[in-house]
Amino acid sequence: MSSSTVHNSGPAGPDAFPLHRLGLTWWKALVIGAVGAVVVNLLILAIAKLGDASLVVVDGGEEHPIAVGGVIGASVVPLVVGTGAALLLSLWRLAFLRIAQYVGGGLALLSVAGPLSSDADGGTVAALALMHITLGVMVVATLELNRRHRLARPSTR
């Protein structure tokens, strides 16, 4: 027998890797999700400007420039409203967090069809599509942060 034998003390218990290390309360998750979406989408906007994208969408013959304020509003409002509703519903049934992840992420991916079908230059279309995808990723991540927090604490029901 070797002196380097490691003795197994049994299987790791449920507390071996606590989920709460990555979980956040509802309001912290919501704030981090909204700020994260804004920061990433503003970065995409800045890169598109540096890449000489026109950042103008023509709709019905009318030009709509993409500005910083519009990006912030379009990043924060859908995320806060959608995830906020999901978080409220999850107070009733925790399963709504997982359902909302699929629905929110799916809707954000479906919304990419708007920029892809718009009458804009390639840089603008790519930037807008990435912004929609970013929002979907942030919705899923925000809800997951709260879901992990909720799973880690003992149930009161």
Can you give a write-up of this model?
This protein has 157 residues and is mostly helical. 63% of the residues lie in helices and 5% in strands. The chain contains five helices and two strands. The chain has helices spanning 26-50, 68-90, 95-110, 113-116, 122-152; strands at 56-59, 62-65. Helix 2 (68-90) runs antiparallel to helix 3 and helix 3 (95-110) packs antiparallel against helix 5. The mean pLDDT is 87.
**Quaternary form:** single chain
What fraction, in percent, of the residue positions are helical?
55-70%
Our count of helices gives: 5
User: Termini distance?
Assistant: 51 Å
Instruction: Write out the strand line-up for the largest beta sheet, numbering strands in chain order.
Output: 1-2
Measured by DSSP, the beta-strand proportion falls in: 5-15%
* Rounded mean pLDDT score: 87
What would the principal axes of the Cα set say about the shape?
Answer: elongated
Radius of gyration, taken over Cα atoms and rounded to an integer in Å: 21 Å
H and E string: HEEHHHH
- How would you classify the helix and strand content by structural class? mainly alpha
Tell me the total number of β-strands.
Answer: 2
The parts where pLDDT drops under 50 for at least 5 residues are: none
Q: Sheet with the most strands?
A: 2 strands, antiparallel
